[in-house]
Structure formats: C-alpha cells, structure tokens
C-alpha cells in the first residue's frame, strides 16, 4: 500500500494578513508566528497518526479554521477537527455534494434565503443575511436547507479574515410559519444546533433578528435554550426593522430593503460569484473521510457526549441523558 494522497498536502504558511488583523489575532486568539507554526505541526502529525482519520486536508488555511476558533488550544482544535470530519461523513446529505449550481441551491440563493453581503463592517466582519420566510417548506426539503447553509459557511470559513474577525448574522423572520417548524423534529433540531455550534469553526460575534412573530415564541424559546450562554448574550431580537433601528442596530451593511444602500439582488449576484469560485474546493471536500467502524455507535449517531469522550470505541454509559439516535431522526435527509 502506497503513501496516502491527502486531499491537500502540508504547505509552508506565509502570513499575508493585514497588520490590524494580525494584531486582533494576537490579542483575541493568542496567535503569533511561533504559536501558529508549532500548532500546525502538531495538528498535522496528529492527523497522520490518527487511525480513525482516513483522509483530510493538511493545508494551513484549513487547519487554522479550527485552531483560531479554539484560540490555539491544540487538543480542543484536534477534537473539533475530528468532530467535523466525522459529522461530514455521518450527515453526508448536509455536508457532501455542496454544489451551488444544483437547481434547489440556485433557487434558494436567488430568493435571498441566505447570503453574505459584500464588504466588511467597521470591525472587519462579514455580515450574513438569513430570510427563512422565503423558504417554501412544501417545495424544498430539510436536506436542501442544510446544504445551502453548508455551501455558505464552508465558503466563508475558507477566508482567513473571517477566521479571525468572525461574523455578524442578521435574520428576518417575516413569513416564517408553523410548517417551517416541522421541517426538523425537536431531536433533529437539538442535534443540529449542538453539533453545529461545536463543530462548524465560525466565530459568531453578533446575531440580530427582526419580525419574530409572537406565535413562534415557543420555537424561538426552544432554539435559544439550545445555544451556549456565550452566544445567547450576543443575540438581539427586535419586533421590527423600525424597532431595530430605534435601538441603534447598524443597518449600513444590510441590503437597501433593510436600511442599507445596495439592493439585495446586487448583493446576491456578487455573492453568487464568490460561491462559484469556491465550488471546486467544496466539491473536493467530499474526499475527506473517517473510518466509521472505529467510532462507537453513539459517536456515529452524533451524540455530543460520545464525541466529547475522546472518540473512543466504547459506548457512553447508559445513564447519559444526551439525545441519541440518528437513525430515523434524519430520515428525510437520506437522499440519493
């Protein structure tokens, strides 16, 4: 058997970040050349020696996603990397074949369901706009919803400026109704949110939501109960755009329809170009794999506690209260 051909090989990292970004990385993430070089070497050696990882990217830009999110705590970055690779494999309908040219993806993009606006705010962050009300729950599946999020986030995570400065989220709840709530079972929702926050290496700095209808209060409260206290403190909910503006939410980066200057369609067209550039990389990610048989059943099912326990083959004790069981739970995601 010959040497493994990795999805991407190890490379010599050359820092080309602007000075203000380097300063922010040093202050917020404890990142400097020495720390970074040592951490990258440790990450690569660990991946190569990890019998559970079949294939992965080894380039610095990919590994820095995890190191920066975990503030260069190498063991935590390693756990996050393995969790990511495992969940890519397990939740393959959501993570694989991330092709923006597929008809449902192109339609959701054109509707403005989810997109990143051009440019950066005063703190260097990209702003992500979500409009869940335009998602037709009778036309599209929960797999489509997961996939468009995967395409969006994977594209954004590749940019080192985003890895350091993080993201601002803006959501418009107008048009969201009960059928949207039934796209995922409560069990699916728990697993997606819990795994997503721990696994997708993104720094969520602010979350703003408008038009959150009182009839959906239960769903909103349930969603808020799933996220960490750290993220919860960064969430601001407004009754309307006017309410948000009154409370001094910055609308300058948003589409013209929400108080900014550039029309939403123009923003979406610019974002589409970014997604098309990223398409080959995203499709290449399908080569990343783990040896599923080396994980416990609960780890394969996406149980948070199982993943926390060092990815061992032994089952988590039966007294564990974490919700388990991906079989059946993600039935609708088992697409061709």
How does this structure look, described?
The protein is α/β, with parallel strands linked by helices and 336 residues long. The chain folds into two domains: 19-95 and 288-333, Helicase, Ruva Protein, domain 3; 103-281, Phosphatidylinositol Transfer Protein Sec14p. Helix content is 47%, strand content 9%. It has helices at residues 19-29, 33-49, 60-69, 74-90, 92-95, 103-111, 142-157, 160-165, 178-181, 186-199, 217-226, 229-232, 241-246, 264-284, 297-300, 304-308; strands spanning 53-55, 114-116, 126-130, 167-172, 204-210, 235-237, 289-290. The chain has a five-stranded mixed beta sheet with strand order 2-3-4-5-6. α7 (142-157) crosses α14 (264-284). The radius of gyration is 20 Å and the shape is globular. The protein starts with 18 loop residues before the first helix and ends in a 28-residue tail after the last helix. 32% of the residues are buried.
């Amino acid at each position: 058997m010959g040497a493994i051909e990795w999805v991407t090989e190890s490379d010599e990292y050359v820092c080309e970040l602007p000075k203000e970004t380097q300063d922010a990385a040093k202050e917020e993430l404890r990142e400097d050349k020495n720390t970074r070089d040592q951490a990258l070497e440790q990450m690569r050696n660990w991946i190569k020696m990890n019998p559970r990882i079949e294939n992965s990217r080894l380039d610095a830009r990919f590994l820095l996603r995890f190191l920066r999110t975990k503030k260069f705590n190498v063991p935590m970055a390693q756990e996050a990397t393995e969790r990511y690779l495992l969940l890519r494999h397990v939740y393959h309908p959501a993570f694989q074949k991330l092709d923006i040219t597929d008809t449902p993806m192109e339609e959701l993009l054109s509707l403005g369901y989810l997109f990143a606006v051009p440019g950066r705010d005063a703190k260097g962050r990209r702003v992500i706009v979500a409009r869940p009300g335009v998602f037709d729950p009778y036309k599209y599946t929960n797999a489509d919803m997961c996939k468009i999020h995967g395409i969006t986030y994977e594209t954004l995570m590749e940019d080192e400026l985003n890895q350091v400065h993080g993201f601002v989220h803006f959501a418009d709840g107008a048009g969201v109704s009960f059928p949207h709530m039934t796209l995922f079972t409560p069990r699916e929702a728990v697993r997606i949110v819990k795994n997503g926050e721990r696994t997708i290496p993104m720094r969520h700095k602010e979350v703003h939501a408008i038009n959150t209808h009182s009839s959906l209060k239960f769903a909103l409260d349930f969603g808020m109960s799933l996220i960490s206290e750290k993220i919860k403190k960064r969430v601001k909910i407004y009754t309307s755009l006017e309410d948000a503006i009154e409370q001094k939410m910055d609308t300058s980066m948003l589409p013209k329809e929400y108080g900014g200057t550039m029309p939403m369609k123009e923003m979406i067209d610019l974002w589409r170009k970014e997604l098309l550039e990223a398409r080959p990389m995203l499709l290449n990610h399908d080569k990343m794999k783990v040896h599923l048989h080396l994980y416990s059943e609960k780890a394969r099912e996406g149980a948070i506690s199982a993943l926390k326990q060092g990815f061992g083959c032994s089952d988590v004790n039966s007294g564990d209260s974490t919700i388990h069981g991906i079989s059946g739970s993600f039935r609708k995601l088992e697409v061709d």
